[in-house]
Amino acid sequence: MNVQIVAKSKPYKEKLGYRIGLDFRKNKGLYLMILPVLVFYALFHYTPIMGILIAFKDYVPKKGIIGSNWVGFRHFYDLFTSSYFWQVLRNTLWISTNNLIWGFPAPIIFALLINEIVSVKCKRAVQTITYLPHFISLVVICGLIKNFVGTDGLINNMFFGEGSRNMLENKNMFVPIYVISSIWTEVGWGSIMYLAALAGIDTQLYEAATIDGAGKWRQTLHVTLPGIVPTIVLLFILRLGSMLNVGYEKIILLYNPLIYDKSDVISTFVYRRGIQEASWSYSTAVGLFNSVISFILIYCSNTASKKITTTSLW
Known about the structure:
Layout: H1 2-26, H2 28-46, E1 57-58, H3 64-67, E2 69-70, H4 74-80, H5 83-103, H6 105-115, H7 120-135, H8 138-149, H9 154-160, H10 174-199, H11 203-211, H12 216-241, H13 248-254, H14 260-263, H15 266-276, H16 280-308
Antiparallel strand pairs: 1-2
Helix pairs in contact: 4-16, 5-10, 6-10, 7-10, 8-13, 10-12, 12-16, 13-15, 15-16
């Protein structure tokens, strides 16, 4: 019996290898195009995984990862017993939750509004104007925000009068400024995916809804939104998975020591401990904790989506 299985499996393997070789010769141009992407992910995404060991060692650059002393979970113990880390985690969740509540629906609503514009020229003009902030350097964006909300800034004077205190020195104003500016810069770019999904909806469904007496609002509820639900669900799962990954660049450019207790997040905390204070092992432990929680979030949200809507990433 075993001899027969081996005899049958050998030609199959040879046939499989022949098919792979034939496919490579036939599509070698496509394989060469994807090669830089594979090299990029191998060098910058998979090879650095070995650096996780730093979280379990007292890392000294001179000794290297292998030569540094093994300390086990000491850095994780210091992390979980630190009151400041829990404050940073709370700030991260608070900013991410607000950004999710207000920022996630914004591109959907914006795409629905653009979809209702009849004039092609007007639609293109609106899209171009709203896409522009996404391509402007983040340093320039943060510079504009500082000018707008500064002591003599336009927005500050408009809402609080001339000579008012800088809004970025008010800890209660940081999250609204961060969320609103994020919506401003990303709402146009984020609507592209939803506009593509809207373009794929069968126009006959709208015609049938019109014949049945449905107005624009009912067409939106019963035709448009169900047509883009798979796209919404997939992007929502990805958004949940990155809730703890609040971008440090923008926060570093906006915050100051007066509002650390409300604006300091995990990524900025890792930046200060790892780069400025050279606590390599401790910052790696924080980053590893962040990655594990992000994986759990995306896995749970994907599982829930699969059971509720039958739409999932895998």
